[in-house]
Amino acid sequence: MKLIGQRGYRGTSLAAIGEEAGYSRGLINERFGSKDGLLWVLVKNMMRVYGREVKETQGKNVGIESLYNLLDNHRRALELDDPIRALYALMFEAMGPIPQLQPEFQKLHQGFRKDIERMLRDGIAAGVFRADIDPVAQAAVILGTMRGLAFQFLLDRAAFSLDAAYSELKQNLRRSLVP
What we know:
The protein is mainly α. It has a single domain (36-177), classed as Tetracycline Repressor, domain 2, CATH 1.10.357. Helices cover 77% and strands 0% of the residues. α2 crosses α3 and α5 runs parallel beside α8 (135-155). The longest helix has 24 residues, at 35-58. It is elongated.
């Protein structure tokens, strides 16, 4: 994660990964099949940990509190730096020099949007969100905002207060979703 976050996927060799981990490049190939195989194990493990944290903090929350939990978990992930920096480096490479990554990241984002859509639909059904919101469009807006904040923060941590930005985002969501 650290090397990919620093150098990107293309700039990180199996030899460098092996050296950083204290293993040979051959062992990495034997265990994961390829650099792509290692990459997807890394991404899946990061998403499994993130998903577990979201579920553990989610509890029975419905409505705005469920979205707040999602945002709080995302903010905490940003503060950890290495894992999310690697994830964002890979996402951006999927749009350009490493197109073979794109299908997996498309699935990943579809899953994120579906989770947010579910939170929105649950809030509408419980009567705690406005009935006239479009959960599909709103999920895209929320995920896009999270990605935008993350990208800005990872590029320049001193540019703004992450806490203030997430606080403002929460207030905006409350104003736009809660009747």
